[in-house]
Structure prediction request, 322 residues.
Amino acid sequence: MASSARSIVSCCLLLLIFVAPALSGRSPAGPLRYDFYSSSCPRAEEVIRSVTQEIILEDNSMRGVFLMLFFYDCFTRGCDASILLTKSESNPKPENHYFKFRGAGVINKVKAAVEAICPGVVSCADIIALTARDSVTISGGFFFNMPTGRRDGLVSQWNTTGPLPSSFHHIQPIIDKFAAKGLNTDDLVALSGAHSVGIAHCAYFQDHLFGEADPIFNATYTAELRKLCDTDSTLVNQNPMDPNHLSNQYYKNVQSGNTLFTSDQALLNNSATAATVAYFAANPTAWMAHFAGSLVKMGSIEVLTGSAGEIRQFCNVTNSGN
Prediction:
């Protein structure tokens, strides 16, 4: 377990505002900055937070969707909102051709609210990052600063989704994919805590429900899931205890085998990740701080800044329409 996470166990949660950048290993003076829009669009984060809260109040399952979008976006071509681009004549197979997800529409809703006060200023990539951060605050009750200054990508190709870890993966491929993005095993375990909120399609975990029983999963819980998953499209809460609360309950679920995905239980099959699971299960404040730091760290993957990319007017299409 990283010593930086251990050192803040007894700290007040308010210190997460300062802990996140420290754990991220990046300086605010790097490619991204804190309060990037303080002059160009002072109310940007306020408006984004307000609309995000409104969306979650309308649909609790969006708590997990905002986090999933940020993760998927950063792991494909970097945090550049390429995941939101829809197919066009020049690009019939963008990233979202490979996998289906919810959330693109709500990001467009947030973008429209920001465009109404500051046209052409705030990127869709930053909106994805800030809505994820705000979802954490709404669902987990802790706040941290998220650096901004990302610009939007011009390219989205379905064959660039290879770096994405799969819910069917065992531990070593997941570790390798995180390492390729500059994230270590502590980041992997900390970010997996996002599975304490939201819902999932049965198709993503049916591999262990039918056929020979997998002893790493709780047999009683597996039997309950088997009854629920009569079709691939059935939706199930990711956290059977409290699906609307982002918390370290996830790690207790892993320890008891009450999770959905092979990738969740795989955390126990490596001595380093298993030790971190146990540590986060017993230390909620340490997990919150490390989750915040790892989310900030993930948000710096292969970002476009300066004059690279563009600031899209609409998140689902480049400004040239390609």
